[in-house]
């Protein structure tokens, strides 16, 4: 059994000694553990693309790193079993899976070899686990200041969301749903959710339904500035 361990050492809650903490519970499961650490954007995606010869892939990082890894393995003919160890700021999909937010405990849970299937969303050639967002949620992410995120953690997301909501402009949409149904209108936010957490906060969406073959759709028409 071979394990590829991808770690983002610059993720929000990553720290010195974390790597060894998660390796120890996993060491007894595998004959070989190969460690790849990211140094720049898209490293995790490229490492994951090379995971064909591995039985399992464990990623240590936040939602951005998980997103890259998913897009690396999704197109493989032989996908390794994926494990997530939360090491980022919000760790939204790890929360959906009910994983402990303490990395060592998450590694110990992975070591119990409990395997579940999860839904995988796709937009053109891009894949996602947690949600697809248009409008306000995307603008908030784009507007997030890197230094502010590093200094304030999750609060940085909230501040960016507040700033974006003050400038939110509605956009026109046309959605094609199941059985040929269509929806049209204007919105400031459209969210197709597979997970239960957004920005580290529970959304009460998709509760226990991350593997039911469906996404929950949220459409916000306007933001009340009052």
Low-confidence stretches: none
Number of strands: 13
Radius of gyration of CA atoms, rounded to a whole number = 18 Å
Widest beta sheet: strand line-up: 2-1-3-4
What's the tally of helices?
A: 8
Structural class, from secondary structure content? alpha/beta
Percent in strands:
25-35%
Averaging pLDDT over every residue, what do you get? 84
H/E element sequence: EHEHEHEHHEEEHHHEEEEEE
Intertermini distance: 58 Å
Silhouette: globular
Report on the biggest sheet: 4 strands, parallel
Helix content: 25-40%
Summarize the structure.
The chain has eight helices and 13 strands. The chain has helices at 18-26, 43-49, 63-73, 92-96, 103-110, 136-142, 146-152, 154-166, and strands at residues 2-7, 32-37, 56-61, 81-86, 121-123, 126-128, 131-135, 171-176, 182-187, 189-193, 197-198, 201-202, 216-220. It is globular, with a radius of gyration of 18 Å.
Provide structural commentary.
This protein is an alpha/beta fold and 226 residues long. Helices cover 30% and strands 27% of the residues. The protein has helices spanning 18-26, 43-49, 63-73, 92-96, 103-110, 136-142, 146-152, 154-166; strands at residues 2-7, 32-37, 56-61, 81-86, 121-123, 126-128, 131-135, 171-176, 182-187, 189-193, 197-198, 201-202, 216-220. The longest helix is centred in the C-terminal third of the chain and has 13 residues, at 154-166. The model has no long low-confidence stretch (mean pLDDT 84).
């Amino acid at each position: 059994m071979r394990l590829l361990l991808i770690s983002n050492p610059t993720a929000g809650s990553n720290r010195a000694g974390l790597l060894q903490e998660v390796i120890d519970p996993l060491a007894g499961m595998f004959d070989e553990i190969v460690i790849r650490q990211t140094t720049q954007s898209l490293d995790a995606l490229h490492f994951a693309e090379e995971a064909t010869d591995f039985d399992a892939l464990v990623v240590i990082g936040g939602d951005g790193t998980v997103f890259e890894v998913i897009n690396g393995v999704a197109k493989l003919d032989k996908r390794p079993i994926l494990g997530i160890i939360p090491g980022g700021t919000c760790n939204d999909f790890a929360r959906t899976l009910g994983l402990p937010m303490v990395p060592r405990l998450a590694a110990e849970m992975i070591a119990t070899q409990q395997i579940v299937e999860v839904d995988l969303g796709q937009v053109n050639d891009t894949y996602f686990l947690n949600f697809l967002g248009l409008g306000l949620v995307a603008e908030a992410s784009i507007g997030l200041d890197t230094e502010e995120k590093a200094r304030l953690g999750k609060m940085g997301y909230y501040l960016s969301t507040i700033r974006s909501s003050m400038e939110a402009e509605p956009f026109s949409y046309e959605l094609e749903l199941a059985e040929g149904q269509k929806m049209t209108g204007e919105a400031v936010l459209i969210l197709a959710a597979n997970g239960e957490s957004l920005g580290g906060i529970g959304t009460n969406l998709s509760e226990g339904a991350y593997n039911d073959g469906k996404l929950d759709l949220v459409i916000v028409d306007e933001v009340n500035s009052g």
